[in-house]
Design goal:
This protein is of the alpha+beta class. The protein has ten helices and seven strands. Among the domains are: about 100 residues, no CATH class; about 150 residues, Histidine kinase-like ATPase, C-terminal domain (Heat Shock Protein 90, 2-Layer Sandwich).
Length: about 375
């Protein structure tokens, strides 16, 4: 083995000591001095290797400094295994930065997997933001519903009361001047307006009971044929006045799992609407069919139908669709909203298919069995 002279050996030791102490600039100066001196080839090889190490460590120092300053785009030194963990940290921080940007735009689907407890805390923050967003959306819906509710009370209730008061004043003040036909006409108007107003109040109360959780739902195994027969029997007089046929077409699979009073409310509303928007001599059918573990009930009519734009407003409290019936029957616009609320409370779904002049089909789906 070739011996290294004592002086170069001492200088190499000082260089190594400087590197180990982190004094990279000092090590570089010592290396420059060593290169200027005469020495064996082994000394130059060692000096070259130390110079390469010193350069890489300097690059590594710059890289670590950049990371500590938050510069995640700084390129790591290549072919230097000591910084492989730092490179992974840099990649993780870049991904975390991207995730944070996504969260800032409202994307709370991110899941952070970074440094143990940090990930737990970060993901808890995301869940908190999700909950806050949901609360904000619920409050927005609540305010919109509240404003609509007050609008109904201030307008839809005030107008009919004004009509009742106006007709009543005329009867009270001009009774003797009016003939029997005129009196009867005023009384008919008062009666019809009072019935419509009572119907609106009843719908509002039912809706508010659902919203406040005061309407209790007790699902049981229902025999749909009996509920449909009861609804048809109740509404036959209304249909007879317009010469409308009510037809019950119930299949053998006639059961559903839902609250009896709630489904009766839905059937009454949908069949009443069908009568309202069907011309004299028309037909209304109430049928059902099974689809896997669900049963679908459909009320179809030969009425006036609904335009595509109006279908979008069905079942929405904030956009109630108010249209006169074929005999100028008044509607509250709340019936279908109640139907949607009730069906969803019973783990079901409701929808409509229609075209202007071609009648309508209102369907709702209910589970066949009790929830597991």
């Amino acid at each position: 083995m070739t011996e290294i002279k004592s002086e170069p050996a001492d200088e190499i030791c000082r260089i190594l000591q400087s590197i180990s102490n982190g004094e990279l600039h000092e090590a570089g100066m010592l290396l420059d001095e060593l290169k200027k001196k005469e020495g064996s080839s082994e000394v130059y090889k060692i000096a070259g290797a130390l110079a390469n190490l010193q350069n890489q460590l300097q690059e590594g120092f710059k890289y670590a400094t950049a990371l500590s300053d938050g510069d995640l785009q700084y390129e790591a030194p290549r072919n230097f295994y000591l910084f492989s963990e730092f490179k992974q940290l840099q990649a993780n921080l870049r991904h975390l930065t991207w995730q944070t940007q996504q969260i800032a735009t409202g994307d709370y689907s991110q899941s952070v997997n970074f440094m143990g407890e940090f990930s737990v805390a970060f993901n808890q923050m995301i869940e908190g933001l999700k909950a806050a967003k949901k609360t904000q959306e619920d409050l927005k819906d609540l305010y919109a519903t509240r404003n609509k509710f007050f609008s109904i009370i201030s307008h839809d209730l005030r107008s009919p009361f004004n009509a009742i008061l106006g007709f009543s004043d005329i009867l009270a003040e001009e009774w003797d001047e009016l003939n029997d036909s005129e009196r009867r006409n005023f009384l008919e108007n008062i009666r019809n307006t009072a019935h419509n107003t009572f119907d609106l109040l009843e719908r509002l109360l039912e809706w508010s009971r659902i919203q406040t959780g005061k309407m209790k739902f007790s699902p049981v195994r229902l025999e749909l044929d009996k509920l449909i027969a009861e609804t048809i029997r109740l509404l036959t007089p209304s249909a007879d006045r317009k010469l409308i046929r009510l037809i019950q077409e119930v299949s053998e699979e006639k059961y559903a799992w839902a609250d009896k009073d709630a489904i009766l409310l839905v059937l009454r509303n949908l069949v009443s609407n069908a009568i309202k928007f069907t011309h004299q001599g028309g037909t209304i059918r109430v049928s059902n069919m099974q689809m896997k573990d669900q049963v679908v009930v459909t009320i179809s009519d030969t009425g006036v139908g609904i335009s595509p734009g109006s279908i979008k407003k069905l079942f929405r409290f904030e956009e109630q669709l108010k249209t006169e019936g074929t005999d100028h029957e008044k509607g509250t616009g709340l019936g279908l909203v109640l139907c949607r609320e009730v069906i969803e409370k019973n783990r079901g779904r409701i929808w409509a298919d229609s075209a202007e002049g071609e009648g309508s089909r209102f369907s709702f789906m209910l589970p066949l069995k009790q929830a597991d």
